[in-house]
Amino acid sequence: MIDLRQKELAEWQNRNFPRSRYEEMTKDQLIDMILAMQFSLGMAEEVGEVAHHILKGVQGIRNGVNGFDVEQIGDGVVDSGVFGQQLLSHFGIDSEKVTEVVIDAVLRRDWLNNPSGSNLKEETVKVPKMRPSPEQGGGWLKPPEEKSLYDTVKDNVHRDSIYFEGNMPAPVIAWIRGLANEIERRMKG
What are the sequence ranges of the domains in the chain? Predict the structure, then answer.
């Protein structure tokens, strides 16, 4: 029975999302898609780690034998946020502004007096953009900011070592190194 359902799903997948859709994309479109997937999957992976540590804490086994491993939970939450920041930057979304918009929308909800949410309209949050996307002639930073950031990163990030106060999660270090490499590439090109 499951074999038949799996085949039906594969046929449905091929009809609705054919490979040809991707074969027709430009290299830049594919790279854009891969980066968005990378950041999204990074967030999902980190949220999975948080869930893992919460579950083991509730069960009282493995790393949770002595309760919740709050260091690992904190690391996973922050790492997920780092990937989220990368995703927002990738799409040119102003993190600070969109955070304000979303928090304002959440604060308007009153679950104690309206537990069903019946008076809430379907909320569509308008996402504030930072600048036009790179495809539209924009980018994450303007050239003077890019040069300044490049100088700061170049002075603090080295291929094999990083100089920071305290500990930095690996995704942050990887992101900074990637940023330094990208800025260096853009400045040479």
Answer: 27-93, 99-128, 141-189
> Position 159: which residue type?
R
| Tokens (6 digits) for 72 | 């690992």
pLDDT tens, position by position, 58-114: 999 988 878 899 999 999 999 999 999 999 999 888 888 888 888 888 888 888 988
3-class SS letters over 92-151 = CECHHHHHHHHHHHHHCCCCCCCCCCCCCCCCCCCCCECCCCHHHCCCCCCHHHHHHHHH
Residue 61, C-beta contacts closer than 8 angstroms, at least 6 positions apart: none
- Residue 125: name the closest of 148, 100, 150 by CA: 100
